[in-house]
Amino acid sequence: MRRPRLLYIPFWATLVFLYAPIAVLVVMSFNSGDSAYTFEGFSLKWYGVLAENERVLDGLVNTLIVAAGSTVLATVLGTLLAVGLARHTRSRSLDAVALMPAVLPDLVLAIGLLMFYGLVQFTLGVTSVILAHAVFSMAFVAAVVRTRLTGADPSLEEASRDLGAGPVTTFVRVTLPQLTPGIVAGALLAFTLSLDEFVIAFFTIGNLEQTLPIVIYSMVRFGVEPQINALGTLLLLVSFTAVIIGQRMTRIGEARAQD
Amino acid sequence: MTTSRGRHRLGALVFLAPGLTYIVVLVLVPLALVLSFTFFQRGRFGGVIYEFTTENFARAIDPLYLGVVGTSLKIAALTTLIALALGYPTAYLIARLPRRWKTIALIAIVLPFWTNFIIRMYAWIILLNGPGLVNSGFELFGLGPYELLYNQGAIVAGLLYSYLPLMVLPLYAAIEKLDPQLREASANLGASGFTTFRRVTLPLTLPGVLTGSMFVFVPSFANFVIPEMLGGGKTLMVGNLIRNEFLKARDWPFGSTLATALVAVLVLLLLAQAWAARRA
Amino acid sequence: MFRSRFTRRLPAVATVAGLALAVAACGGGSSDSAETAPRATAEQLDPNADLTKQSINITVWDGYTPKELPEKVKEKLKVSKMNVTLHATNEEAMTKLTVGGDSGIDVAFVSGQYAQALNEQGLLEPIHAELIPNLANLYPEATQLSYDKGNKYSVPYTWGTTGICYRTDLVKAKPTSWNDLLKPPAWAEKKVTMMTTERWLALPALKALGYSVNTDKDEEIAKVKELLVQQKPKLLQYDDTTFGDKLKSGEAIMVEAWDGWCPTTDEKKNIEFVVPKEGSDLWVDTMVIMKSSKNKEAAHAFINYVLDPEIHSWAAENINYKVPNKAAMEKVQVPEGSLLGIKPAELLNGESIIDLGQASTKYTRMSAEVTAR
């Protein structure tokens, strides 16, 4: 367990690099002045301004709807896909196809979907973004669940089948319980990816609704807005809590799987 | 035997069909649309004329656009290299930390990734701006102000900030798996620390290096938001070019051609990466 | 090995591609015919339609209409719902309005040349003047705008010009010419910004060289490119949206700006606006009604309501935009330092930017060449 001291230099450099902007964000969110650069005194006023910003609140609601919808869709499709790929085929090209949406540049997927929705005359809105987000989320869920599957013991499933259970029964009774931690982790990943997704939503959201990242984008484009600092701080707090909860749940899941 | 095989087929259908259908309809068909639009033409005022033409390809092979691809390759490669230089030692150290600290360090690396992407870039604007905090810091020492924002350096900083965790995580996974006995054996055989690293550790973690590099390179190469926000519109990357053709020029066929070219460049790079990984 | 696998997969690839082509060809029919017959015939509208059964969805720039407009409209016109969505730029609005299908938007606010492009693609409902009696409030000049003479498919909401906005306390000499911006003196280096939208990016150089803002001559556009390439190293950034803030913070001291966005009424009184001596443009932000709208009577009633002097004067009084509405402007007290005093006749000296059709791609390319350097 030797840790070369020299390694601490890039390690701390990385952490400073990662946290300097965050620190600025958090400190400036409590600024009582309007300036983005000078701290004039402690105040919660930007949180108040934020709380009254209906656009942000609407955007938040839409973002949560999109994230929830696409997560459900992606988790179901991705889990089935992972099991199918691991247990029912040996095709490596199918593997590649399943992973493709995760590797494809978001911009290319975004314009492809925009063209597709346009040609089939699908009205752009929350639904079109849910469907679009589920595309890449599904690939991530499938990848995470697959890692879990390779660790799982296939002999249990074989035993179940030998005892006369059909593939669906085997899946529900034997495979699924083993996979739960993987599915939870995949769903969490899908949810967070959707929460922050900008490019695809930007191209496929339509006129009537906006997701939070798009609202933030247009706020930032119109100049310095101290309430953005407050929003960033709140999002950080929520993410932090989510990480902790996620960590706990995975650990409980693992403990249960071992029972 | 036949029934078991039949059941197997049924299983494959039940499990594979929904996901694969979804991918065909919402990924392959849209991609094929992008591909097919490369053969059409922009209408006079936007819109599309559905007549076969190869003119878009002639337009795309142009020193102007090749130059933009070059700039994007340069910026993405630089970002990847710095990410590797910072990420490898960081991942190496984390892998050697005690279990408790390991988890905390990993969360610390990923956490900034979980605030909003645009807000993270906004924080960089505040930091690097003319009257921003970095310049105020320099001022204390009687230096500056420097021009830190609205140039390619700022773009690299922004890309690095966005994708560094994607470098650290695969590297960590690769280094973590290493058997410490290998290094001990190497040391016992008289190899210096550096030789051990070069001959043992690095080759064994190379797949992690390649995966991490791909995770950083691909989104950097195709980015358009960061060059726009931190580059002050003065640097054109492939992503900006495509976005402009779609949103500003309303030239979907030519935008599709450029997008196809982007995918082609990435596929070539991925093939090269796969080839390198096989040789490693 | 690779080859055999590839050839085995080829039929699947071909099928998908063929499918997509078929979809494209079918879906394309409508857009293709729109090219040949841009101006569709007007639908019969009922002047006595029951507006309580209709709703109004508009898309507009942030802060461009009064916040309380939806409530007022609902109360006054008795429509069932009024929904406001925001776009940051013309381009964003255009993408969603032209993608096909029903965008859900009844009334869109876009600049003149974009209204023209929408109309050319057959996406706009002609304006039924008889449903908008308040059109009579407009200045006569506002019915003679070159992108849409006679307001056939668009109604002007605000208008103005483009010039140089600058900090009086930080410039060593007041700018008078576009060349002050294009060839900034040493004291202004890295402290000037230009717009990103390509036609406005080209405007200062076109005017400085004495060309039309609507030129499609390759050699003229090439000269413009040369000027812009020379200017680039001396720029702070290309910026369409935050130049006002940049001036206030002092990061920029001279910027290309639309008059309405130049903060001349800032309390510090250190910002002024000038239309350079070589001349400039006349820009118009318009209201258009989408052909796909299911609430066309309500949309006309909405535009009529906006043209009411009480409502229309809001833009002049609160966001410092001149409105092409004589009755509204007569109500407005012009504060000191405001640019609202510019008269319609002076504005008409400016040249309207129109959509150049195929030639507009020359500007796209020119702007790519400049920014890629």
TrEMBL record, chain A:
Main location class: membrane
Annotated ranges, domain ABC transmembrane type-1: 60-246
SUPFAM superfamilies per the record?
Answer: MetI-like
| Alphabetic keyword roster | Cell membrane, Membrane, Transmembrane, Transmembrane helix, Transport
Against Pfam families, the record matches this protein to: BPD_transp_1
Bilayer topology term:
Multi-pass membrane protein
* Compartments, as annotated in UniProt: Cell membrane
Q: Which InterPro entries does the record match to this protein?
A: Bact_Polyamine_Transport, MetI-like, MetI-like_sf
Stated family: Belongs to the binding-protein-dependent transport system permease family. CysTW subfamily.
Which protein is depicted? ABC transporter permease
Organism annotation: Nonomuraea indica
From TrEMBL, chain B:
Matching PROSITE patterns, A to Z? Answer: ABC_TM1
Keyword terms = Cell membrane, Membrane, Transmembrane, Transmembrane helix, Transport
Give yes or no: UniProt keyword Membrane: yes
Per the UniProt entry, what species is this protein from, by scientific name? Nonomuraea indica
Write the lineage as a comma-separated list: Bacteria, Bacillati, Actinomycetota, Actinomycetes, Streptosporangiales
The membrane topology of this protein is: Multi-pass membrane protein
Localization annotation: Cell membrane
Instruction: Spell out where the chain crosses the membrane.
Output: 12-40, 75-94, 106-128, 148-173, 204-226, 254-276
Q: Which family does it belong to?
A: Belongs to the binding-protein-dependent transport system permease family. CysTW subfamily.
Listed name of the protein: ABC transporter permease
Superkingdom: Bacteria
Which Pfam families does the record cross-reference, listed alphabetically?
BPD_transp_1
All copies of domain ABC transmembrane type-1, residue ranges: 69-275
